[in-house]
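Hi P.,

Sorry for the delay on this. The queue was packed all week, but I finally got your sequence through. Input first:
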Amino acid sequence: MRTTQKPIVEKKHRLAEEIYEGHVIVSFTLCIKNRIPIFTQHHIVNEFVRILADVRKQYGCEIIVYLFMSDHCHIILQGMHGHAKPLDAIKAFKQKTGFWLARNFPHVRWQKDFYDHILRKDEDIRKHIQYVLQNPVRKGIVDDWKKYEFKGSTVYNFAEWD
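Then the structure:
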């Protein structure tokens, strides 16, 4: 006797796509599958930053902050005009970097999904940036976030921050 199994339907956990458009600020966290430490070499991180810079322009965004830990990255994007698409920028970033990984490190892949948080107008953006920048300090990699190399922004010069 044959039984038919119902297909597994994944639960939607994202808001409607139009919520992610315009002058919105969105914080993203993307993880490498099985937590493989890929972001430990300058040439790899530099390639990912180059791709991030390309997609941010394509989708009308500024990079408030990016920070690459060994097995994941934090990126906060801000839409710069009414038609900006930070969510599409991250999807394109994942797709392009995933292709790069497949060619250069075939055993390394992104996790299927990622985390995001849309910042409300009353949220302090600087607190979110500081939280991201403090990640390597919390992990015991450096004693001061300014010493951590794999970070940046198209908006802020972190060398000027206290």
